[in-house]
Design goal:
The chain is 39% helix and 30% strand. By secondary structure, it is α/β, with parallel strands linked by helices.
Amino acid sequence: MIREIRTSNELLTLDEDGIVHLKFPVKTKHNLETIREHLEGVEELDENGQGVLLLVHFKNLVGMDKFSRKFVNTDRMVKVHKACAMLVHNPLSQLIANFFLGINKPNFVISSFTNIENAKQWLLEQK
């Protein structure tokens, strides 16, 4: 069953493989309010309470403020994210992904990819 949740700046979609796709419909910079909305949406899609396999489509994400970067490592955020694959589409997305990983690496399994099939395969191996 496919389920969707919209926040003020995200579209979260749970696909038939059990992967949650995170897309940003418009150019977005996360702040503490929007990252909390993200957490609530992901918690709602975490059907078995074991954490989600999250595939972040980095198109349109232009950054995160200091507070939202710190919030990523809170206990609730770590618990609800079993693994995260970041799908980068262009050099700017790659730069933002690398910056995010370099400055504030989350306390859950995370990796970046340029190919969606490789990203999905890697996520499913993290189950």
